[in-house]
Amino acid sequence: xxxxxxxxxxxxxxxxxxxxxxxxxxxxxxxxxxxxxxxxxxxxxxxxxxxxxxxxxxxxxxxxxxxxxxxxxxxxxxxxxxxxxxxxxxxxxxxxxxxxxxxxxxxxxxxxxxxxxxxxxxxxxxxxxxxxxxxxxxxxxxxxxxxxxxxxxxxxxxxxxxxxxxxxxxxxxxxxxxxxxxxxxxxxxxxxxxxxxxxxxxxxxxxxxxx
Length: 211
Hints:
By secondary structure, the protein is mainly α. The protein has helices at residues 20-38, 40-44, 50-75, 78-83, 85-100, 105-109, 120-130, 139-151, 180-204, and strands at 161-163, 169-171.
């Protein structure tokens, strides 16, 4: 028996086509890719400094992750896409943090090891303080839900729930095609990091005026 949907969705028939947050995500991705093309010479032929060497690795990884995330949304694998938010965020935060603290790039060169590098939560707090925001922010409030999804903790259950064929809730092992709110939330979480990636391309590499 054939499933009531295509085995592979295309841009013309993907399940969440027309959702406003998805449209905004697509626009953000298009803008970031345009920025990447304009800075391509710098990315591929940078000056060899430690910070640019780091950025020339981390920025393409970030792009690869959000493109993979977008394709998972297209195919309805929303939980798999949610898992990618944290590694996407972590690379963007590293880029932001090392932009503010270039002296710490030596830690990255040594392997960005757990016992030496600042945690994602601590980097978020440092970025928050550096931008003159209040001191009450705690980075783990932002990172803890993402850690739950990444590590399969019990509180990650809400992200894989979907309606079963019997009308009750079950944890989806495959495509989630009737969860528009979950799709919207996923896009809302991804959009800022796509924008940060574009900003970091411009921050670390020169873009010719006539590019």
